[in-house]
Amino acid sequence: MTSPRFSEQFAWHTLVAAQIEDHLETRHEGLSRAEADARRAIVGSNELEEVPPPSGLTILLHQFTSPLIYLLLVATVVTLALGEYVDAGVIAFVLALNALIGFTQERRAEESVRALMELLSPHARVVREGHEWQIESRELVPGDVVLLESGVRVPADLRLVTMNALEIDESLLTGESVPVHKHARRLDAGIALADRTNMAFTGTIVTAGRARGFVVATGLATALGSVAEQVRTQDTTETPLQRRMVRFAQTIALIVGISAIVLFALGIALGEPASDMFLAAVAMAVAAVPEGLPIAFTVALALGVRRMARRHAVIRHLPAVETLGSTTVIGSDKTGTLTENRMTVQALWTAMGETTVGDGTLTPLHEDDPRLRTLLAGVLANEAEAYRTTEGLTTEGDPTEVALLVAASELGVEPEEVRDEYRELEEIPFESERRFSGSVREHSDERLLFVKGAPERVVDMCDRICTEHGEHLIDGQAVHRAARAMAARGLRVLAMADGPVAQVGDLEAPGGLRFLGLQGMLDPPRAGVAEAITGCRAAGIRVMMITGDHAITARAIAAELGIADQDAPVLTGVELDDLDDDELRRRVHEVSVYARVAPEHKLAVVRALQAEGEVVAVTGDGVNDAPALKAAEIGIAMGRGGTDVAREAADMVLTDDNFVSIHAAVEEGRVTFDNVRKVTFFLLSTGAAAILVILLATVFRWPLPLLPAQLLWLNLVTNGLQDVALAFEPGEPHVLRRPPRPRAEGVVSRVLWERTVLAGAVMAAGTLALYRWELDQTGDLTRARTVALTTLVVFMAFHVGNSRSEWQSAFRISPFSNRFLLGAQALALALQVGALYLPATQYVLRVEPIELGAWVRIVMVASTVLVAVEIDKAFRRRLAARRGGRSATTT
Description:
The chain is of the alpha+beta class. The protein has 33 helices and 26 strands. The strands form 4 sheets. Strands 10, 11, 14, 15, 16, 17, 18, 19 and 20 form a 9-stranded mixed beta sheet that branches. Strands 8-26-25-24-9-21-23-22 form an 8-stranded mixed beta sheet, sandwiched between helices. Strand 25, helix 25 and strand 26 (652-654) form a beta-alpha-beta unit. Helix 29 packs parallel to helix 33.
């Protein structure tokens, strides 16, 4: 062999067997061992490269990559340099606790390619030098002749050349829920991978029959290998929350830096000692950096994880909790997610017309009813099994054939009973060339042939049709019209016929049969999915269907669920291949249903949506879905019917494989982000108050009202209890009636930034007023600082009520709806009281007890922040109502 022509890529499905042998330089008797070894040296082993998961140290270090964490690290270094070891120790404890929580949540390593490797068959049966051998699959090379049989996993990509009733389950690659009947005929170029019925692909499973085929691709060159390479090279998409937190941390860093510089420069300009001003700048930095935010943020996400788990959504990565709340488009698989993943007979058509199945109108059926005979044929020309147990009807076999048995059983035709009554003499298995299957049965000393198959094939076998009053000449055109009408509704249509064996002639090509009827099947939509899609639409989320199923079926299900109209356009994988990037970006706005798509098509649709500014969630269960799952802002895998590959590539796993759970998870995601926002606003506004206290005291040339240790106590203990408790807030009304948040909107909205300034100013003014009062009345700096610290603590106890909703009045929210917060408020106040009397905290915080009169003044002044924010909320609600913006009902 002078050149490795076998290593090139070809449309193998377009070649006939002789062309394949010539191109691969092989033969029917297989390769020799020497030839196989030489080829393996060129193309490598038939395996996927294993990528080791990230180490525990890598995961731990990743917890320190947030810009907000960087600020805390700098604060730790600065406080250590100043000899403030207690302050530095407290900040270091916060960092360690946050890292521990994040590490625990993300310990599971990414193992997408490792899971893909498990789909490779460990052994293969090959023909080499005219003899059959069993070898390790990794030793296969292009040109090898591989033998397949029922139950085996296909070890490499094969071009099939001979077979007997071969069926292969390709759902992991194509999403097609029904096993594919294979043949050896050449096919036209340009057809989708799911329609290449003369090929067998690595990792798929033979469900019936036998076959022989030539290996045309191994390792990364296979369809499975292509998916592995896409998963390996696909960067994980940064979530909206991660982008917002980066912007937020940068904003905080800018505020801290500018404030510290301004304060230091102002103090120097006023003649203050540089050492004092440096301490004041550090105090301001400590006040400005929300040390408790990383913990509160992580707790809020972890609580979201727990709530979602109760609603059948398991989160693998913390930021994914919130991402669903930002989602603008959900690209959903069809089979098993929107539908039940089980074929069900929906309609019967006979000479009596069409009858809907499942509405109770078919019972009882009399013996001469053609509908009864149609059901009977569906049971007898059937290789699936059905039998009664204590748990009900148990079935095994091809989903289509199982559907026929279940429909018959539900309508009074018990499979076990009729099969005992009609004893089988001979079976005619389905083959793609034959396009029907059949069974010869003996009943009352009469031999009968029952067949089922493609309507056009079965009609050609029949010369008469069964009616309620006997038999009549068949009107083939009427049958074809009925079959086409059923198929147009997305039903998979099978025709049934029967006849005495003595009259049918050759069983390979029978004739003279009696046509019985048609049965139309569909994988029906899941209960509640249509309502969930309506709910998504009300929440401003567009739902799309991206499936490997046929276009007609996809359109029918999409129309039934309200995803698209009955005449809405459907884009297939073949059509997607003809679109450039710009055209696809335009079409994704118009088309909501994509059918017969390959992995690269699904990925292209996701990328086009992202390029248009959409936040995309995508569902999937097969290997073919893994690249898109990883590329989307949030990938959602199926927990029951999904593959390990899909689950490992996803951010979220549905334990019930139900789209309704996605709708529930969207709600929880929005609640989680709302709580993150509440926590952040609370910490920012109290931090703003502390900054203003220090800055204004410097301007007025007053002694520093708050020391760094006091500010840390404020941020981490009294504040920290309440901000963590805010993470437990239940969802507000109408959370799913709001549109998704704009990408450009930060963690804190413009309204809350403005309210931060208002609340911070009120709290700072009240604190400084009481500080100055105590200093003037007593001349005791320690006492004045104690009053300032306590005033801010009480301010926060009132202000946390303001933070429970961006728009609702605090007086309209039950204090008992978040018992954690109620307890946290009480505990924060108790800790502050205790700190004033315990010697240890008196020493660390430099505080002392205060009398009842001071407490009365503090409570009266601190309550003003509640009044100020309530006025602001009321004004904004009226303004929004007048502008027709946010509905007043949210109040």
